[in-house]
Fold this protein.
Amino acid sequence: MSFNSSHRLSFEFFPPKTAAGIEKLKLTNSELNGFSPEFFSVTYGAGGSTRDNTKAIVLDGIAQGYSMAPHLSFGGDDETQIRQLLQDYRDAGVTRIVALRGDLPSGFGDGARLVHANELVAFIRDEFGDAFELEVAAYPEIHPEAATYQNDINYLKMKFDAGANNAITQYFFNPDAYAWFIENCNKAGIKQPIYPGVMPIINFDNLKRFSGNCGAEIPRWLSHRITSYSDEQSRKDFCTDFISRFCERLLELGAPGIHFYTMNQTQPVASICKNLGLQQG
């Protein structure tokens, strides 16, 4: 199944640490904007460790005419700091926030309290009403810290009950996990859109390491198939084709759109989008 006008497309970036990385991201941003995404999201780093860089990327994107959605978590900040950051974003024309629990920055003792995403959502609604469309995170394969599958779904419902509009999932590679997750969310009374987050396979060694830390399962057959290729181009071609077919399957299952974790790369995301019938303007 290909994209149509009812599907939402969005792309995610992370703030580069170097001037060269920033210039490369500007080019990637411009190229992917040709697919007319709903928005570009920009990650925040553990405990807001990239706060200033995130804000700079967001403000630059807005100046270029792009729709930008900064990620936000309390981390080690207090309400005054978060309120001011939200006000700055609102004044700059930001209309969408990705609200997350995040992690505390290093150096905070055991007595420090994490502010959960539902609390952040409630805080934003209390302070700014409906000024922002709020995206939250969802986990088709269960959050690594969740006690049970049902507890994780119940926590997602708490985020929606607090005022979230949509959810974006952690990346995964099993479409059945998404189908089962949506079915159980519906049973729990969750009716808001849940957009699958899709990770193109760019560097498989890095992906395996990161997936082990965040609880995303790479199917055994897929791992064997990817590593069976002796030349890099054949591996890239297979991965692009696999993710394209994976996205088609998600859309067939009723996914309301796709959110791509770009890793700040134009390729293979652009090729996947074209395979899904999207035209680059």
Residues 106-112 have pLDDT under 50 and may be disordered. The CA atoms of residues 104 and 114 lie 7 Å apart. The chain has one domain: 8-275.
